[in-house]
Amino acid sequence: MNSSSVGAMVMVRLDAVKRNYSVGGQALVALDDVSFELPQGQFMAIVGSSGSGKSTLLNILGCLDRPDSGRYLLDNVDVSTFDDESASDFRNRRIGFVFQSFHLLPRLSVLENALLPRRFLRGPDEGLEQRAHALLQRMGLQRHLSHRPDQLSGGQMQRVAIARALLMKPALLLADEPTGNLDSKSAADVLALFTEVHASGQTVVIVTHDADVAARAQRQISLRDGKIEHDSAV
Ligand SMILES: Nc1ncnc2c1ncn2[C@@H]1O[C@H](COP(=O)(O)OP(=O)(O)OP(=O)(O)O)[C@@H](O)[C@H]1O
User: Fold this and answer.
1) Is the C or the N end of the chain the one with fewer CB within 10 Å?
2) Which of the listed residues 54, 64, 208, 229 should we mutate to test ligand 1's pocket, taking the one with most ligand atoms within 8 A of CB?
3) Distance 109 CA to ligand 1 centre (A)
4) Residues with Cβ within 8 Å of residue 232, at least 6 apart in sequence
5) Total domain count for the chain?
6) If the chain, 234 residues long, is cut into consecutive pieces of 10 residues, what is the mean pLDDT of each piece?
7) Which residues form the domain of 172?
């Protein structure tokens, strides 16, 4: 394990997580007995060939899906038993998502997109507009606040998505192939931002096919047929 994470608090704990799908009446094992711990502040990449279970694992980590068996603890909370409403509230507050295809709302401005998590907030606003401005500035987008997504480059759209993902100060930042739709220069810029966000203390998990992207993480786990084939921390 990287020396910087020794002694850090455990942010994520997966114990014997299984996830099956039923395909044509047959059970397909998408995740098979997956266990690991992720210390707070670590930057981990999940790699593996197509169909190995990467997205299924990311969806479970992001509380978009639940294990069929096993346990998932995030920040000492057992989220594997949450109902849909508790899971979505928890997800909005504690998890930031960045997707390959950005998932921005086309009719909203850059600032409004970055502020989207506020719409799902139950309770006080907590100065989110000020925080969105600061994050967009950090992403180099201060001159684009009123632009619509179709007026931005791919790299700029992804930077808006990163600002949105960080708005609620998530415990966990998850990214699914975040550079997959970008040219090499924009991909390098976005990757540098992830590295910077991690350096500021954020726990980050990134799914990628790209060995160069994975090499930027502190730790890599590779999946094969739903099992952990290799964990660089072990
Ligand atoms: N909703 C679903 N219904 C049935 N089977 C599914 C479903 N989602 C995923 N699977 C199957 O589960 C296995 C793991 O899929 P998953 O999408 O997690 O893999 P992946 O590693 O993310 O692949 P890729 O790199 O192609 O995105 C695959 O065999 C896939 O076909």
Assistant:
1) C
2) 54
3) 33
4) 219, 220, 221
5) 1
6) 58 96 93 97 96 96 94 93 89 94 97 94 84 96 97 96 96 95 92 94 95 93 97 90
7) 38-67+81-231
